[in-house]
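User: Batch of two.

Assistant: Item 1 of 2:
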Amino acid sequence: MTEANGIGAYFGEPKAPFLMVRPVRDARFSVTRLQCRLKGELSRIVSLPADDAYFLMFYFKDVMHSDVVPGESESEIRRYRQGSVCLVDLVEGASIRLVSDLDSLAFHLPRALFREVSTFSHAPAATSLRCRRGEVDDVMHNLALALLPLLAENESEPGAVLQHIAVAICAHLLHSYPDRANASGGPDLSVWQEKAVKDFMIDHWAKDFSFASAAATANLPEEVFTAAFASATGQTPEEWLMRYRIARAKRYLIEEGWSLSKTATSCGYADEARFIEAFRQVTGVTPDIWRARWLQ
């Protein structure tokens, strides 16, 4: 894959702003600002060539697209949420059919870059990453927002700031999405089953729902689903939901200035005490202490 002009050309946007840097040694990190407008087109096919690299997309707005695999039937059209990411291995290339406007950042991340970052920082030793589909990622959201001013300036020499952000992104991916072999011998949870379950939990995150209902979206019995989810993500469904709720609670505490009582109720907790305990489990401190530190 050529990086001379970013990857905008593959999306029909050859003049899309992009930045490229060697954050550690030789391997290149590149990011492209994509604002694709279909302008009357019913859809647009986007095909990326095979490469020894990963492709990462961060969505600023909801988008609809399907996967296109040569020789196979096209997948159903799926919604990818604002604030989510897709992470794809380009070993065999990748193709999608875009059926809505796209507002995103697209990253080209060679495997060699992850090897360099793992020796340069405290990131885990470089291994394969798990394919992600529509994974809500608050860390990437913050890093993507930090990149926007640099892309707006479109400097040919973006400097140390881009280098630091590039290393932070790679380290985050290594920490958050390592490829875990299923050593348990139990059923694997496909990327689409995982997406369906997480979408269900996000749609109902502030409500009291049964995990049997979540398991049903993956067409699995609850006990089988629980084991497969933990094997794939390193967390039980309950732990994943708790962390999602606490991430939302942090926004309410800081951006909205809500009370603990209102935040607890809005985030699906029966009372303030249960919310405080969950917050402490995730962050190590109470909501009041966390907010005070954040505001300092």
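Item 2 of 2:
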Amino acid sequence: MKVEILFPEICNLYGDLQNVYYLRRCCPELEIVETDLHSKPRFLTEDVALVYMGSTTEQGLALAADALRPYTAEMAAKLDAGQLMLLTGNAPDVFSDAMDSDSADTIKGLGILPGRVKYTMMKRHNSFYLGTFEGMDIVGFKSLFGFHYDAPESGGWFDTVRGVGRTPETKVEGFRRGGLMATALIGPLLILNPPLCKWLLRQMGAPSDALAFEDATFASYEKRVAEFKESGRSWQYS
């Protein structure tokens, strides 16, 4: 059973590669394979349980988009057929139609996800997030320069309770398309959300959904959920 990390040499911000390394802690038989910018993604020709891509710099977004562009149609077909892929942070931006910036040229995206991302480079948004998915509380953090506009309200992943969704005006957060799961949350997402991690292990067909350090992970999660639900707590950081 394999998990493929796309472009770890550039998509490695916020410690979010620990999403994958934690999965291996939970499932020791899991094999991690890494694909660099000059190689064809392994999941297009091999049996891969999950593909993961995390946050990168603005220059990295352009490099990642250019590296994946020759495989766009092939990737879309695999994802629509159920291939599991997890994108966190600004990785979903690469899969949008385009990334517009107030201080740089537009970066053409892959068009696998709808809408355009609009960056305001001198106005970083930092906040915590509380949402829901299939009866689970979802927590995480956002640190981004822009939001995902012009996408339909349908096709989201999480429902926002506190914080912002794809834009400050919407409650839908992230995207689902076939096996593709995309969110702007960082954290790392799977460590912060043990119920979601268990759900993903089941989707991957792991032999067990038992988690590494499960008691401690759930204790931390429950404490964070309670804190994020406090009515007097501001969800946005200055």
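The helical segments are 18-26, 58-68, 72-80, 91-94, 189-192, 194-204, 214-228.
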